[in-house]
Inverse folding.
């Protein structure tokens, strides 16, 4: 079965410093991996997705993630945090096999990112 | 706005009452998903439709829950005889069907927050 583990429930950074949100996955086949962001009182927004092409994936708002099969990791990074980045971030794996028909998403527990001025 | 919409955004009900939520997906999407998110947790999959067919139901979807998508467009999620444990955010998402490459992304609505008193 597929699963994701977000290693930190809360990360706090200062504005202008790098962001690292850690995620490990478990999958029996080549996974589809995503990062979603959830701002308070707003819907989930897709930041980026890994689809077995390039291992370094660039997303919106300056975020990127690197798929490392040997480490089963998909960490989210950003070189310089902004105050507007404060939100909950979810690492997600798609529950599907190659050519399968299901496709529901399996979410991690989330990492709350705080950005200090 | 052509995104996923949900109605109502908030619902307060007394234990034992029935409630119904509506989701309108992005019009070109034929897949529609329901998730539930409790406080401090990531969303958990409940069920999904491809067109009007309900193809998968999670074990979380007890017999008090029923979902429909009668014409393959909007969907409703009904909870009968609500319990305090049903208090959560109910999220709807839509997507294109899985492509031959097996990759897709889901677009989420803002959610319906249910409070059972």
């Amino acid at each position: 079965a597929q699963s994701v583990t977000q290693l930190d429930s809360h990360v706090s950074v200062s504005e202008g410093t790098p962001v690292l949100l850690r995620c490990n996955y478990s999958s029996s086949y080549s996974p589809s991996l995503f990062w979603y962001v959830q701002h308070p009182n707003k819907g989930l927004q897709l930041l980026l997705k890994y689809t077995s092409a390039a291992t370094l994936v660039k997303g919106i708002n300056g975020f990127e993630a690197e798929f490392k099969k040997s480490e089963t990791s998909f960490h989210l990074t950003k070189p310089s945090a902004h105050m507007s980045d404060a939100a909950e971030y979810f690492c997600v794996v798609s529950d599907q096999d190659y050519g399968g028909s299901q496709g529901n998403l399996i979410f991690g527990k989330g990492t709350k990112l705080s950005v200090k001025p | 706005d052509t995104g996923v919409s949900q109605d109502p955004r908030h619902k307060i009900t007394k234990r034992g009452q029935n409630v119904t939520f509506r989701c309108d997906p992005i019009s070109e999407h034929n897949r529609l998903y329901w998730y539930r998110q409790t406080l401090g947790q990531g969303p958990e999959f409940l069920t999904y439709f491809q067109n009007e067919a309900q193809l998968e139901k999670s074990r979380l979807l007890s017999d008090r829950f029923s979902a429909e998508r009668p014409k393959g467009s909007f969907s409703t999620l009904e909870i009968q005889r609500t319990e305090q444990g049903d208090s959560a955010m109910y999220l709807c998402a839509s997507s294109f069907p899985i492509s031959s490459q097996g990759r897709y992304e889901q677009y989420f609505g803002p959610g319906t927050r249910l409070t059972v008193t």
